[in-house]
């Protein structure tokens, strides 16, 4: 998460830096290296040696761990509100510098701190893009010929959602989340739902109750949304879910 935060604040800085450097309109005559300009826009100032472009340029070096730790230190010195907050653990001997460099390469194309990203669900946005990037790298680019293909049922039980009868009001307004597609939008984890079920409503749906950390995937209307449950939940028929096997 330290690297994610570093990329986030670096993207925000670089976007404002480019605006200040262009010097148009209200930014005419602005100095892109003036820390006060960033403070006025609620953007963290990122020193040159801590910017993502600098880390990217040194990602293949065996000293990349020390470079990242120094970047964290430099950011804390320039932004007192972050003092003692950022992790400085990347130079540890048990962290392979090659793997760290590869992670930096993977994160480089994920936009985190630009205006569009900041206005959305940033954490969900980050995880979704990282998942896509890692999947492409691990299972497409670096795929091995000796890997076996397995059906989803090998990894977990597949549960198709269902809506309890709306003619029975006693099934609703309980404490069990009833997940629908609008509840998934922008939410990697579903904490709140517009509808809930009672115990009676839940019991009317045999073998449909999803445990904590089940993977919900929208399959009708808006296709491809993915969210995890945060407690025992139900979904409607537009969502199919995977309940991972405990031994996998």
Low-confidence stretches: none
The average pLDDT score comes to 87
Q: What portion of residues is helical?
A: 25-40%
Number of helices: 9
Structural class from helices and strands?
alpha/beta
Write down the CATH class of the largest domain.
Mainly Alpha
* CATH architecture call of the largest domain: Up-down Bundle
CA-CA gap between termini? 25 Å
Q: What would CATH call the homologous superfamily of the largest domain?
A: N6 adenine-specific DNA methyltransferase, N-terminal domain
Order of helices and strands: HHHHHHHEEHEEHEEEE
Q: How many discrete structural domains? A: 2
> Strand order within the widest sheet?
1-8-5-6-3
Computed Rg: 23 Å
CATH topology value of the largest domain: Ferritin
Task: Describe the main β-sheet briefly.
Answer: 5 strands, mixed
Oligomer: single chain
DSSP, total strands: 8
How big a fraction of the residues is strand? Answer: 5-15%
- The general outline is globular
Structure in a nutshell:
37% of the residues lie in helices and 14% in strands. It is an alpha/beta fold and 248 residues long.
């Amino acid at each position: 998460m330290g690297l994610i935060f570093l990329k986030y604040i670096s993207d925000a800085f670089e976007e404002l830096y480019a605006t200040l450097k262009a010097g148009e309109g209200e930014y005419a005559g602005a100095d892109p290296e003036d820390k006060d300009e960033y403070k006025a826009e609620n953007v963290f100032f990122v020193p040159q040696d801590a910017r993502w472009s600098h880390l990217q340029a040194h990602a293949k070096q065996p000293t990349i761990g020390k470079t990242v730790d120094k970047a964290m230190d430099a950011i804390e010195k320039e932004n007192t509100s972050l003092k003692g907050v950022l992790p400085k653990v990347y130079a540890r001997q048990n962290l392979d510098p090659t793997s760290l460099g590869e992670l930096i390469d993977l994160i480089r194309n994920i936009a985190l701190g630009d205006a569009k990203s900041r206005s959305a669900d940033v954490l969900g946005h980050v995880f979704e893009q990282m998942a896509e990037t890692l999947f492409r790298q691990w299972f497409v680019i670096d795929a091995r010929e000796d890997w076996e293909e397995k059906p989803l049922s090998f990894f977990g039980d597949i549960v198709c959602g269902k809506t309890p009868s709306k003619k029975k009001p006693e099934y609703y307004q309980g404490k069990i989340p009833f997940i629908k597609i609008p509840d998934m939008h922008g939410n990697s984890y579903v904490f709140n739902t517009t509808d809930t079920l009672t115990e009676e409503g839940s019991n009317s749906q045999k073998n449909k109750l999803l445990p904590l950390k089940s993977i919900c995937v929208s399959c009708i209307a808006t296709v491809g949304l993915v969210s995890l449950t945060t407690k025992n939940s139900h979904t409607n028929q537009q969502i199919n879910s995977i309940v991972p096997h405990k031994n996998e």
